[in-house]
Each structure stands twice: as C-alpha cells, then as structure tokens.
Specification:
The chain is α/β, with parallel strands linked by helices. Helices cover about 35% and strands about 15% of the residues.
C-alpha cells in the first residue's frame, strides 16, 4: 500500500513561518517522512475557511473582491521571499476540493450517512450568523440579539457505539487517552456553517452555508492524496487538533481506494531561549541549525507526541551535533529498508540511532550528499 504524509491544513492567520516556525512542524515532518519513504514532494495544505478570514476580508483595506486571490496572497506571504513550494499549495476551498466534497456528500446523503434536516440552531437576529450553543454574543457582528430557530442543516449521526477514533485511525502506537477525548462529542453533529468562504452547500438546498471546515480539511487531504496517487493518507496533527476535528471527519476518511488516518506529533519548543544558548555552546552554524530545526526536531516530535519538553533540548542538540560531524561508518545492511518499514508502521525509534541517522541526514554545507564530512 502506497503511503504518503500530508500536513494538517494550517490556518491562514496573521503569522509568517519566520516568526512562528511551530506552525510549520506538520509541513516539515511530512516532507521528511515522504523523503524517507522515497515519495515525491506533496503540496502544502491550508485552512482558509474561517470566520476570522471572513471578517478580515470584509474590513482589510485593499483586500479586493476575490477572496480566493486574497487568501492566496496571504499564504504566499508566509513563505520566505513569497516563494511557494514546488509541489504547490492546496486549500480547503479549492475547486478540486469542492468538487470532491460535493460528490462525497451526495454519496453519503444517498447512503443515509448524512442528512439534511431542520435542526434547532442558535442564530443572530441581526446578521443570521450561526452562534455556538451557550453563546451570548454573535462572533460575526457583535450583536447580543440571539435566538433559537429551526433551520435546515447538514447533519451526521454515527452508528450506536461506533468510536470516533479507533486504533487503526492513528498511526503508530495506540493513544487510548486521545480516543477517549475524541469521543466526547454528540452522536449527531451539524456539518453546515454560515461562512462567506468555503465549500458551498447550495447544491444541497442549503443556500448561504458551507461545509464545516473541520470536515472540509479531511477532504482537502483526500484530494491531495488522490492527486499524489497515495492509497493511505496520513494527516499530521497534534493531539489537540486531532481530537478537535476527528468527529467531523468521520464521514470523510475514505474515498475510492484511499484511506485517511492521523499521524500525531507533539509541539516543538522553537521559541525557548535555551535553544539559542545551546547553539552558541555547541557552535552550530546556520546550516546545521536549519537541518536540526527543519528535519530532526519535526521527526523527533513524532516520538514525543505529547510535545518535546524544553528540558530535552540539551541532549538533542548534543546528539545532533555529534552525528552531523561524525564520519559515517559502513551502512547497516538493509538499513534504509528497515527505516522505511519503521516509518510505515509509526516507529521512530531509529531516529536516536547514531549509526543509522548519519546516513539519512540531508546534505548541507560541510557534508556531501551522502553525509560524509567534507
């Protein structure tokens, strides 16, 4: 089965990768893992269906009328010198994603997995925006005039006793606590939202509504996987993010012969002051630091799925410094194949095996393409 990793779509907020490198962990990990598997590069995935984006587009000077172009310009600004990745970007509102979503929704409506039914909904009397249960103020216009109405909605109900997340849905060792957190959602979910941008639900007699972005981001991964030719698509996400979206993605985790799962990673403490001091102590140059931050730490975050504790940074920097300078000895027979099998099963134990990792490090100034010191 051909497996490929994709980043969980990054929300297109007010940041750049330079000032918030933690936002790029999924993108960096996916690139490293796919390279280890011998897979071509995959596009970077973005979440553009947000209320914040609606409000920003409405009020930002010079935003223009075309929301898609506005989002694309903001995405481009995240990258150094505005250069997009060679494999491109995919957003959760792209035409190809919308086309796939409409087909999947239609199939699931016919199968009874989804339905359109009148549902008690809290809405704003001033702007008709849907408000969350227990809300006291509209997040779209600020009005406190909220009322409950019966409104047609796209809904999903899971079979009685069916888990939101099962052991086969998460790559690598089982995370029972994550399965428990993810199941704390109603058995019946509303999958339609009032947004100005997104996958329109007008074809399903829900004018003015779009597919909930927590569902749409799964379809974006499937669309990218279909383009890539992958049979198994693993979406990189933190435990919190996976728990937040899993229930909404339950009806959209497979398409054709493609199966979607989650590869959970922890957060990386890029902003910890200790990291800069360690670089100075170990005399790590810019090139070494780039490989450490963009390759080693994102991969290590798949070992520490609850997050990398800053207290581990000294040992990690010391280990990386050592392997980046050491001339690799003879490669273990079948080592690359073993690493691929380990990556395919979610085992990242090999990452702390110095003899193995020296043969896998990306080339950088001071080392040639196969890792030997110059």
């Amino acid at each position: 089965m051909r497996t490929a990793f994709f980043n969980g779509p990054v929300q297109n907020g007010d940041f750049t990768f330079a000032d918030k490198p933690g936002k790029a962990v999924g993108i960096r990990a996916a690139a490293a893992l796919n390279t280890l598997l011998g897979e071509p590069a995959v596009p970077h995935l973005w979440n553009t269906v947000t209320l914040e984006g609606d409000l920003r587009h409405r009020t930002e000077p010079g935003a223009g009328e075309d929301r898609h172009q506005h989002e694309q310009a903001r995405i481009r600004a995240k990258y150094p010198e505005g250069v997009l990745p060679a494999a491109g970007v995919v957003t959760d509102a792209d035409p190809a994603v919308a086309e796939l979503a409409h087909g999947m929704i239609r199939d699931r409506l016919e199968a009874g997995v989804l339905s359109v039914e009148r549902t008690a909904t809290v809405v704003c009397s001033s702007c008709a925006h849907m408000a969350g249960i227990g809300s006291h103020r509209c997040k779209a216009c600020g009005s406190t005039e909220l009322t409950e109405r019966l409104v047609p909605q796209l809904t999903a109900s899971r079979p009685a006793g069916a888990p939101v997340l099962g052991p086969d849905d998460v790559h690598g060792r089982r995370l029972a606590h994550l399965e428990n957190i993810a199941r704390n959602v109603p058995d019946r979910l509303v999958l339609s939202r009032t947004r100005a941008h997104g996958i329109s639900l007008s074809p399903f007699e829900l004018p003015g509504m779009v597919l909930d972005p927590r569902a749409a981001l799964h379809i974006a991964v499937l669309a990218a996987a279909e383009q890539h030719g992958a049979e198994r698509a693993l979406m990189l996400a933190t435990e919190t993010a996976a728990a937040h979206v899993a229930a909404y993605g339950l009806p959209f985790r497979s398409h054709g012969g493609i199966r979607l799962g989650y590869a959970v990673h922890g957060k990386v403490p890029y902003g910890d002051p200790l990291l800069g001091r360690l670089y100075e102590v170990h005399r790590m140059g810019d090139a070494q630091r780039a490989v450490f931050e963009e390759w080693f730490l994102p991969l290590y975050a798949l070992r520490e799925r609850g997050g990398i504790h800053p207290g581990k940074l000294p040992a990690l920097v010391k280990f990386f410094r050592k392997i980046s300078l050491a001339p690799p000895g003879p490669e273990v027979e079948g080592g690359a194949g073993e690493v691929r099998r380990a990556v395919g099963s979610g085992d990242m134990g090999w990452l702390m095996d110095a003899r193995t990792v020296t043969h896998l490090l990306p080339a950088f100034p001071g080392r040639d393409a196969v890792g030997r010191r110059r």
